[in-house]
Design goal:
Rossmann fold, 5-stranded mixed sheet, 25 strands, Dna Ligase, domain 1, Circularly permuted type 2 ATP-grasp protein, alpha+beta, single chain, ATP-dep_Glu-Cys_Ligase-2, CP_ATPgrasp_2, UCP005522
Amino acid sequence: MKPSFDEMTRAADDPRAHYLEYAQWLAQQPGEQMAARRQEAEMIFRRVGITFAVYGAKDEDGSGTERLIPFDLIPRIIPADEYARMRQGLAQRVTALNRFLHDVYHGQEILKAGIVPAEQVLNNSQYRPEMQGVDVPGGIYSHIAGIDIVRAAQPDGSGTYYVLEDNLRVPSGVSYMLENRKMMMRLFPELFALHRIAPVAHYPDLLLETLRDVAPAGVNDPTVVVLTPGMYNSAYFEHAFLAQQMGVELVEGQDLFVKDDFVYMRTTQGPKRIDVIYRRVDDDFLDPLAFRKDSTLGCAGLLDVYRKGNITLSNAIGTGVADDKSIYPYVPKMIEFYLGEKPILENVPTWLCREEGDLKYVLDHLPDLVVKEVHGAGGYGMLVGPAATKAEIEDFRKALLANPGNYIAQPTLALSTCPTYVESGIAPRHIDLRPFVLSGKSVQMVPGGLTRVALKEGSLVVNSSQGGGTKDTWVLEA
């Protein structure tokens, strides 16, 4: 594998300019003091209940697991000029994706122009015919987007940012971004006096503002709720956290009902009409009358109210068709088609296994590539060729031949590394970044995002469900 771009140093004992003060500070910290800080952080996170349920995993006693997402004390630092460019690229990308979603559910101009193959959209399991012709406030479908960004080394020693994935349905992780910052400020207040670090604590205010911005027409003081599948969902902590931070109700499907084309929640004072639902429930489970009949997580009749414009769902039903991995390769063309601009952030080169020439290349180079299911998530259903056994590669070869349209492939990027505390001390580990982009009357984001880190040596899989951890992300103010 190619050498990685190190975020902190150019070479041993040669910190990059934006890390210089931090590196000098770190070199002066006694190891036992940093170890004590690690223990303190873990104790506080456990006490607060910042856990992540891992489906299918079992503890030694056979019970299900609620795991603490490991938190690393060494921050990822991004200089102001780099972030300014990234922010422009994120706003551009999410704006184009929202335009694409409006288009595919209305005039389908991009399909008629042959830029995106119609069958890739209309036959996609995430495409919702029920949304065809439905107008949503401001034409915005994905109000909360999590765009995964990686950095790879270039031959000249620089690092280039790439978008790895677009998460437009119910992206998670923002609570960890906020809690990581609170923890760093508690453990190392002196670092925040030493550096001009852009704040992130106002994210819940921006989120509430965004949700209120997209309320149905004519609603001046909208009632907003967070809809959760319940306490057994892997991200339940985040649902409860965000509702509490925004000062809105956390509800489950059983708390909601439809009457006279409006949605109400049950309260101790009687029914209360609601206007905006920040839903953390997948499309299939939102309305048993329209989608999965066995769902108890949603609200019967919700789709009809939505189609009549009397409730806003954030994110909209049907957004998944735009973050499907088989649609991802077309996003740069979407930016040019809808905005008339060149993409600021690049895609990772991608082979579409449904295309004969691409499939042949992928089959010939499986040991060198990353192969992903188009609907896969959480680091599941993928092959990392350089880290796979011969048996795993041959099993994937059979799966590819059986259903090539279900897969894409990409080169194995040497994701950038950042120094990380591990059992043996400080060592480089691969990272990515998930900024959270809010689209209401304007596109807004707090500086940085959630940095995820692959804690296993050499691993490129940063997902918490696969043993990954998180870091605080500092954007330095100019």
